[in-house]
Amino acid sequence: MAAMRTLTVAGLFLAFCALGLIAVAISTDNWYETDARRHRERCKNYSNKRNDPGYIYISNNNLPLRMLPKEKNVERRGSSVSGEMLLRAKRHFLPPAPAMESLCSRHFNSTITGLWRKCHRGGFDLETEDLIFKGLVPRCTPIKYYYSSSALPRNLPINLTKTIRQDEWHALHLQRMTVSFIGMAISIILFGWIIGVLGCCKEHDLMQYVAGLLFLMGGTCCIISLCTCVAGINFELSRYPRYMFGIPEDISHGYGWSMFCAWGGLGLTLLAGFLCTLAPSLYPPHTPVVHKPRQENGCV
Questions:
Q1: Which 3 state secondary structure label does DSSP give 91?
Q2: Which helix (H) or strand (E) holds 132?
Q3: What predicted TM-score, i.e. pTM, was given to this entire model?
Q4: At what angle do helices 2-27 and 257-278 cross, to 10 degrees?
Q5: pLDDT higher for 147 or 80?
Q6: How far apart are CA 219 and CA 278, in angstroms?
Q7: Is 263 in contact with 229 (CB distance < 8 Å)?
Q8: Across the chain, where does the E strand assignment appear?
Q9: Which whole-number Å values give the CA distances from 124 to 74, 134, 256, in the listed order?
């Protein structure tokens, strides 16, 4: 009896902590982060290069020190022609000048993205901070969960335009799935926690078992939400054409602490469901008392 109560209380405590972590993850904006300071610095240095007559600009990519030396082991692996092609394929340390111009033509900012809005990171870009302080640029922009077609160049082919529109619908569908399933997860976990508390107070093993099943169901919804969130981010990074939707290699990006809070809440939810479903099995079985009828005198 004491072991069952201990497991139930531990499961309810973990479920309460999971609710807190998921609530913090939903209400914060650090799901996905980008840092464009190095890219902006490279573009600034590239735009400040000398263009006066008589000065010849040589990119670092064409300098002999930036080229890979010819290795002797390449001839052992295959022919010399394939070795030269392999060395040329590896020579991608810095993009050439036309690629730098195309990358720097797009404006990248250091941002953080959550479920509800996308914000500029504070202290990462002084120019953007000045515009935000003057009220010319908003700090955060809300994320739209309804379809709104983006502005595209008019000289794009029809097939490419259709592909971009279909990708927009697909990305919107993944965003909707992420928000809906994590909302279902936190609602189911909260409902299961209330049932578990009532079952613990009334010492009702069936209610505790139902609470454990609800925790597992909420964890399943949370898994679906996080997987669709990761799939949506990867889909945005791999959209075609790359020169319009891709991110340069010198922009660092990754998941933020809000995403890890959600994954931590998922783990605690599954552990709470396991404990609450295991607790009723430790309850001692009811042995009904059978009353034998009294035998009267003269009855056999």
A1: coil
A2: helix 126-134
A3: 0.72
A4: 160
A5: 147
A6: 17
A7: no
A8: 32-35, 111-113, 117-120, 140-142, 252-255
A9: 44, 17, 16
